[in-house]
Write a structure and sequence with these properties.
Elements (H helix, E strand, L loop, with lengths): L15 H12 L16 E2 L2 H12 L20 E2 L7 H11 L5 H18 L5 H12 L1
Helix pairs in contact: 2-3, 4-5
Length: about 140
């Protein structure tokens, strides 16, 4: 198997993730989304610093990971940027760009505060449609 940076491995890491759903059912133990290596939520990138790091390197043409390995190496989905209580300025700016919305620094701070609040209240991630609604309210 070929790993990032041109390294080779005889270990079939891509199969690791395929073994987890059957083990969930056999053990009656629900696998947590943030479980190292096999958790389904690991490729979700929320923190502002992590998103800033990821987007800057991606724009420069580098595919990097803030984790010790790329999620694809163990059969996970590629990184996905998400919104929630840990979102920072870089996360908000990324999603504003994605929606084609221009905002001032004060508006970005207000949007970020509301996203963090909603994330804490919901105890889950914020959808893009919820984010768009928050933006509409702030931009009035």
């Amino acid at each position: 198997m070929r790993l990032p940076w041109g390294c080779r491995s005889s270990f079939l890491t891509i199969k690791i993730n395929l073994a987890t759903p059957p083990s969930d059912k056999a053990s009656f133990y629900l696998l947590l989304p943030n479980k190292p290596i096999v958790g389904r939520g690991l490729p979700a990138l929320e923190t502002g610093t992590g998103v800033d790091f990821h987007t800057k390197f991606e724009k420069a043409g580098f595919k990097i990971s803030i984790q010790p390995f790329m999620p694809e190496v163990v059969g996970q989905e590629p990184f996905k940027l998400v919104l929630g209580k840990n979102s920072g300025n870089a996360t908000i700016e990324y999603f504003l760009d994605k929606l084609g919305i221009k905002a001032t620094e004060d508006q970005i701070e207000e949007i970020m505060g509301r996203v963090k609040y909603e994330g804490r209240i919901q105890k889950s991630l914020i959808s893009e449609s919820q984010f768009a609604n928050i933006c509409k309210e702030v931009m009035r």
